[in-house]
Amino acid sequence: AILVDFVWNHVMWGVDAILGPHYFLEDQQTMWGPRPDFAKAEVCTYGLAAVELFLLGFGFDGVRVDSTKSIRKFPDSCHDAGGAKFLNNLTGLCRRYGKLSVAEDLEDGDGLLQLGGLGFHLQWDMAFFCWAYA
Fold it and tell me: Taking the model in full, what pTM does it have?
């Protein structure tokens, strides 16, 4: 299976000049760039359209979503309902087209793999990853 590594928990520095500042949370920078505002429909629509392009347009077998914790939670660890909804819609898109969805989420909770939760097929295991690539 060929998966695309989808990084939507942050976007590179300077992208706000291209997309506009309205796509991002004010004063919510990550270590890698501005954090998208998942409460805004246009942010989620843009992200889901990108995933759909990778899966259907380019023929990838699935998507590995980088740092899902950073999407479903704010930097202060409070729940981000918009981010959780985005992830749920993303996994629904994958399931609808028979594509694989993998969560890189090291907290191992909040229903990541349950269909009633966020609906991912698999969860990234950091212990295995570190062992395999050490």
Answer: 0.87
